[in-house]
Amino acid sequence: MGHGAYEVHAQTFHHLRCISSELQRPMAILQDLCGLNIRLGNLPAEGLMLETGSEVIFLFQKKRESIYEVPLPLPTLFAMMRPGEPILINDSRVKLIKFAPMSILGGRFLLIRV
Predict the structure, then answer these.
(1) Which position has the higher pLDDT, 90 or 23?
(2) Is 90:108 a contact under the CB 8 Å cutoff?
(3) 21: Cβ–Cβ under 8 A, 6 or more apart, which residues?
(4) pLDDT, tens digit, 9 for 90 and up, residues 21-31
(5) pLDDT at residue 104, as a whole number
(6) Conformation bin of residue 39: beta by default, left when phi > 0, alpha when psi is -120 to 50
(7) How high is the pLDDT of residue 108?
(8) DSSP letters along 15-83, please?
(9) How far apart are CA 36 and CA 44, in angstroms?
(10) C-alpha to C-alpha distance for 59 and 111, rounded to whole angstroms
């Protein structure tokens, strides 16, 4: 579940099922499931400042080698991303766009525009 405590959701589901039973009518329950929690590799303690319109390289490794690189040790993301597709970070407050196909280094990095 994307938001809230499991106990609260369980209680809500229980109440809805009781109402459904009392009314003798089926009731569908929809819920917002959380998306992937992707963890970056090692970053500086002070964090990174990404400015709108800037370009950054996401590397398929755990440690960055320059200030323009962000380590992202998640091979499936590199295989799935296509140019123009967004990556939303920081609870969807920042949108990153892959804007160029990257085949150099065997597809081990993504060129992203903030």
Answers:
(1) 23
(2) no
(3) none
(4) 999 999 999 88
(5) 47
(6) beta
(7) 61
(8) HHHHHHHHHT-----------------B--TT-----TT-EEEEESSSB-SSTTEEE---HHHHHH--T
(9) 23
(10) 9
Residue with tokens 């009731």: 27
Residue positions counted in the chain? 114
Look over the chain and give the mean of its residue pLDDT values, rounded to a whole number: 78
Beta bridge partners of 66: none
- Topology, domain 39-113: M1 Pyruvate Kinase; Domain 3 (2.40.33)
> How is the chain split into domains, by residue range?
1-35, 39-113
